[in-house]
Amino acid sequence: MKVALLLFGLWTLDFGLSALHAASPSELFSDGTTAFRAADYAGAIKAYRQSASLQPASGTLHDLGLAEWHRGHAGAAILSWEQSLWLEPFNAATRGNLRYARKVAQLEAPELTWYEVVSTWFPANWWAWIAGVSFWSAVAMVMLPGILRQPKAAWHQAVAALGLTVFLLSIPAHIGVHTRSRIGFVQQKDTPLRLTPTREAQSVTRLAAGEPARLERQRGNYLLVRTSRSQGWVERGQFALICRRQ
Amino acid sequence: MQNPKFESRNPKQVRISKSDLRCRFWSFGLPSDFGFRISGFVILAAFLIPLTVLAQPASIPPQQDPLMSLMLSQPKVDITTNVTAVASFDPPVVGPGEQTIYRVAFNALEETIDWPKKLNAPAELQMEAGAHGQIIPMLGPVQVPYTTFNTRVRASATGDFTISEFKVQAYGHEVTVPSTQLKVVSNPPAASPILHLAIEFAETNLFVGQPTRVRAILPGSAGVFSQGLPPVQFTGQGVLIDQAASSQMVTVTSHDGMNMPTYTFQTVLTPLEAGNLSVFAQCFTGNRFVGSLVITGPAMIPAPPPPFTLLESAPVSLTVRPLPKEGELPGFTGGIGAFKLEPPKLGTNELVVGEPVKLAVSVRGDANVARIVSPTPPRAREWQILDSTPAGGITQSTPTDTISTFQYTLVPLTDEVHETPAIPFSYFDPVRGAYVDLTIPSVPVTVHAGEIPADFSTLVKTNGAFADEDEPVLSGLAASPGWTGTLLPLQTSPWFPIVQLIPAGAFLGLWTWDRRRRYYEQHPDVLLRKRARRALHREWRALRRAARDKDAARFAGSALNAMRVACAPHYPAEPRALVGSDIVQVLGSNGHSDTVRRFFTVNDASRFAGKSSDTLGLLALQPELEKVLEQLESRL
Questions:
Q1: Phi and psi dihedrals of B399, rounded to 5?
Q2: Are A57 and B472 in contact (CB < 8 Å)?
Q3: Predicted confidence (pLDDT) per residue in B181-225, tens digit
Q4: Residue A7, CA distances (Å) to A1, A16, A17, A18, A20 in order
Q5: Residue B384 CB-half CA count within 13 A
Q6: Which of B474, B483, B513 is opposite residue A57, by nearest beta carbon?
Q7: B65: DSSP letter
Q8: Is the CB of B490 less than 8 angstroms away from the CB of A242?
């Protein structure tokens, strides 16, 4: 028992000290901004990346994309801005940056299906809450009047119908979110698109940094991706999804 | 004597002599010649045509490539002379920590010299690569290349230090650089200002793209241009030198009480990168010149004889900051400085739809205004606006400032407009560190309908098509971290379905409770029996506790209560209202009616007769009572 208490005390002390030393996401964001303004883009990238890993935020990812762009990393910049839009699709500045980057680098935007376009209307995670709240609201409006011994009013039925409609309309958006989560971007210049998932594989074509592709499946250190023109394998480190770092 | 062979010929055949044969050859083919034959003519043609063809080029003189002619007309560059290297320290005697230049000169082209990146030197000498360059002056009939490599050297201790001889490759051959000695003493002789190249910046804290004046000063020399040598060069990473803005002069200045000619080279430097940039000046110099001289135009002065010395200034560090993204105003085209806008001048204020009119706008400011780029005109549905500023701009210089003029061609597309559109324009003021709005204002106009040009509809259509397009630009930094969230979709999080189970469970519970409630409402007897059973169990437990505690009074009370609550649903009635006969009736003939009566009798006696009854005996009836209660429970 004493040993357990001692271990718990040490763990608590270590946790407390590490929490004291670790900078908060907002502090890291400020550090990144300071470094960016001093043209220390490498330092800015480091700070923004740490901040985003602790707490992904649209502004942090927006600034991370700018720093990456100034360092000449078009792929990383486009990925950061896409992630920023994933969290806050209403940000016109980020959208403009993506347009600018794609125009300068002569890259194309991902081709989205109609339900994927619908899913971009709101932040991806909003759809989950919209579906949950609308569905349970509809259920509540159907059930609660009877349970509470109240006559079913017209507004009960209206709210139930509205909730059910919103729920049904959110289903395509959910599918869109799911399929968009498989979209990623090439991170390195002249990334070879291989015919087979091997190092000695024949190169089908070479992809520019920032080019969009959809992840089909994985095998070892290689990812099968599909671009707008071709399909092939790329190394895991050369490709990153919007939803998670590879 | 006759030739027997000749004799054997046909007698009609006449012998043809050589002269006759020649005559026949030349007269071959003529109409008078009876020997004319088609085959002979063909043979002759076969000989003559090639001869004619071969003879034709000789008649037209060959056209020489003008570039080749130009190259051939240039004097030869001497690359055949044996390459020699000359090494020296400048100055050869310094104090500890003072800088001296280790200079090695070759009479070879710079590109052919494989200069080592690191020199072998004593550990006390700190070596840093300095300037390097070449000149190819005209010396006699040929141009002789001279290349110099400078190395900045600082000694950390006193003493004599020698850089031993070493070999470098030039023209593919080894060239020996002789050994050179540097003397480091505690009290070195004072450095002379003569031939000491210095660099001066108007400002060293700059913004990216901000032009600044830079001067290189060389006292004690008429300067490089008076010797036919190349002008001063400014060397550094990430800077742009505007050679068109350069000027050079020689004036007599006083240094340490001595009047001497001082050469000054002035130009404009623009940093292109942010950060700390190091810039130094370098130039070749030869002999000296005394007097004052100013040359404003191009001049050709023959080069002096060697040796040529590659001088370099101490590097100057520039602190260059990027232009802030915050506060950038529309119409910013990179102009940095202090500018003023003159009132715009329109060709005429009376316009006709479809007819162009010129708009001229002058910007007044310092010399930087010459580099300002005209703002992109806005896209408007009512106007077609074209930037018609000629390439290179229109710049005028006055004694006080410089004026740059932008020109736009405006075509009104409708007669409903009454003023020209304002053209967004701004510049960055480095002193204030902020963008300043300099929008070109509107000019009032009167537009008449007039005759519509043939291509007017196309103009309007084109203008409309581009009106909605906005040029994407890179934004500034976000002011705050913004919206937070997770990049993984919530639907894939393991806790999200669990959260959804909470309302599901709540609604299921509510529904079940409602169903039960409605059932009991329809079957109240079930509810009574259930409650009676629950009360029976409660009393049952109480009487057992009382029996364990030997508390006969409490045991008797609990027993009565248990029997009453178990029988109440059968009547139905309030349990307290039941008497022993009611219990016996429920139990029927097979019940333990005696046991029941005894309990009620003892209880009635203690309650109504006021005498203390023998309740202790009831404890002994617990087994029978248990059976009674089991019987009653089975009937519930």
A1: -60, -25
A2: no
A3: 999 998 888 777 677 888 999 888 889 888 888 998 888 765 555
A4: 10, 14, 15, 16, 20
A5: 20
A6: B483
A7: P
A8: no
